[in-house]
């Protein structure tokens, strides 16, 4: 285990506040800086110390669409930081296609502590009940050159990469990045196992029993890992197993609308409160911001 790993009984809780396309006209997702800050504060009060942020367009009627305007991103980030002193920002960089100027601009403007780095490509698919495509088949393209460009920018901004792994092959690729020198040799990688995407790894706790023992095979000093679990009530069994196996935990309105009892959440705070309860049932306590910064090797917050 890394010297900076901290108390293993302390579990870092991340809140994924809003996601990329969920329509605020239909679901209780935040869009404006004020809404993002308010939801972050609810999650913070419930035990989350990391906020995973997507940025939305601020024009009337456009809030369901993503924004890569660095000034919009900074206004949202500053509002969250003001509402939650010491919070750790985890910025999305996910974009389809070769043009990554928008995410790079936001990364350099915000200089977040952590940024999600999609570590491999995936056919992003989903079908309706009649077998038709829920959306046109989409390639979420993340070739090595694109991953390397993001990793270089994260090194430039002193941002820790969190490797987003949507299938087992991408988990294995992450190890190859380390061996090849794309990842810093002096930092423990942050690994996010994304379960529940229809064409990726399923939201199945049994899969963790296979994956987690294999993570340390590609690094000598241990791995910080968490799960992102997308779905309905089935997500909570995976959260429980993650807590038992020592992983960090994430939920939020980006990932699910459903509480463990099947009712719909009205805020991120409700989801994080339930996640904290899941952690405690496994004998763990939510980490403070100071604990989380120690675990991830981050400087002290202001």
Order of helices and strands: EEHEHEHEEEHEHEHEHEHEH
Radius of gyration, CA atoms, in whole angstroms: 18 Å
Fold-level CATH name: TIM Barrel
| Helix percent band | 25-40%
Main sheet overview: 8 strands, parallel, barrel
Helix count from the secondary structure assignment: 9
Q: Biggest sheet: strands side by side, in what order?
A: 2-3-4-5-8-9-10-11
Describe this structure in words.
The structure is a single chain. With 302 residues, the chain is α/β, with parallel strands linked by helices. It has one domain (10-296): Aldolase class I (TIM Barrel, Alpha-Beta Barrel), CATH 3.20.20.70. The protein contains nine helices and twelve strands. It has helices at 33-46, 70-83, 101-110, 144-156, 168-180, 205-211, 235-245, 268-281, 289-296; strands at residues 10-11, 13-16, 50-53, 88-91, 114-118, 122-124, 138-140, 160-165, 190-195, 224-229, 248-251, 285-286. The strands form three sheets. The chain has an eight-stranded parallel barrel with strand order 2-3-4-5-8-9-10-11, surrounded by six helices. A two-stranded parallel sheet has the order 1-12. A two-stranded antiparallel sheet has the order 6-7. The model has no long low-confidence stretch (mean pLDDT 93).
Core attributes:
TIM Barrel; 8-stranded parallel barrel; alpha/beta
Summarize the structure.
With 302 residues, this protein is of the alpha/beta class.
What is the element layout, followed by pairings?
Elements: E1 10-11, E2 13-16, H1 33-46, E3 50-53, H2 70-83, E4 88-91, H3 101-110, E5 114-118, E6 122-124, E7 138-140, H4 144-156, E8 160-165, H5 168-180, E9 190-195, H6 205-211, E10 224-229, H7 235-245, E11 248-251, H8 268-281, E12 285-286, H9 289-296
Parallel strand pairs: 1-12, 2-3, 2-11, 3-4, 4-5, 5-8, 8-9, 9-10, 10-11
Antiparallel strand pairs: 6-7
